[in-house]
Amino acid sequence: MGQCSSCGQWGLIAEEVKTSSRGSAYQQPVPLFKVERRRERRLTSGIGGFDDLLGDGFVLGSVVLVSGEPGVGKSSLILGMSAGIMESTPSLYISAEETSLQLAERAERLAGSFDRLLVLATRDSDEALAAIEATEARFVIVDSLQALAIGVTPMKEFVDAVVRLAKLREIVVVVIGQVTKDGDLLGPRYVEHMVDASLMLETTGAPGIRRVMVRKNRFGPSDGVRRFALETHGVRMIEESNRLDDTPEVGRAWAGVRVGRLAQIVEVNALVGPKSKGRLLSRGIETDRVRYLLSVIDKHCDLDLSDREVLVAVPSGGVVVDPRVDLALAIALVSSRRSVPLTRPLVACAEIGLLGELIPDEAIRALTQTLPVAAKEIITPRTRPYLREVLEELGLYKPDRLQVVGL
């Protein structure tokens, strides 16, 4: 007893009395009716769209997780979003991925005052926690969780400590985290359970444009989505149109789909060019889905596009995976091939089956009721059963092939 198994020396063990961590800080239960009721105090960034995502800003005493793939722009986005807060609120930026000089150069490019911002470049989680306790910062950014706490247990312990400090000192702590290629947080799911809000940052396919989605929010809406432009001098919210553009355009249609958990109206564009051995290019919709629809259109609408150049795009950026985009895409494709624009603004919301039918979907009613734009006309499987009927009604159906009817 007392011999070190590594060096073989004796007498290296010292007795240490462990004291309770509760001590005098232990809180006694209180009756619910005696709990002081007050509105959550918040810090606002001044960027309306971002504050709206959180329910009117960051709640004091909360921990917010911002996650995304490496290189997506998490640090730039959060620093830009926080510029307004840092002008008037003592703040602390703890970086485990950049030096203090690199952070200073990044902040210099942004249009904002960072006079009240303290910077600490460290990979030591204990040093980071000590800095939060030692400073008067009300707003703290930790960049990033995986670089500061390596391993499952250290990550849990660090997040526990951060949550405790945030509640005790009534400060806001924003923790930046990395995700896997499947979009899951790199580390234990325990982390997402402990934080008060979780935001996911994604690319959209458009240069400099990022989508921020709310995955969890204890103090506000939990299904918000906003797009922001990462510009040289800061961050700008991209205003979403509150109405459909009713200008007739060949090859354009509007789809009612879900993006994440939020109902959205998405513009779909198609360009069917001259014959070119069937070249297909799609941006924003899976290529296999486009090929599927081309086959259905050929079979059930007598319109062969197999030897044509076909270009498909979602102008707003991002990738639409909801199969209800089918109908809008089919309308856009046929409109382009026929050089006939839609004469009235409408939203198409339906998945198309192999038989050319619009597949019944019980969830469509709920989706169409929560679309952000009040569309005058929405085409769904409840209103039209087959794709060909829709095209006929829109003046787009005209068979390429002569149909021979027996006498």
From TrEMBL:
Pfam family for this entry, one: ATPase
A GO cellular-component term linked to this record: cytosol
Domain of life, per lineage: Bacteria
GO molecular function: ATP binding; ATP-dependent DNA damage sensor activity; DNA binding
Domain RecA family profile: 39-179
GO biological process: recombinational repair
InterPro entries in the record: AAA+_ATPase, KaiC-like_dom, P-loop_NTPase, RecA_ATP-bd, Ribosomal_Su5_D2-typ_SF, Ribsml_uS5_D2-typ_fold_subgr
TM annotation in the entry: none
Protein name, per record: RecA family profile 1 domain-containing protein
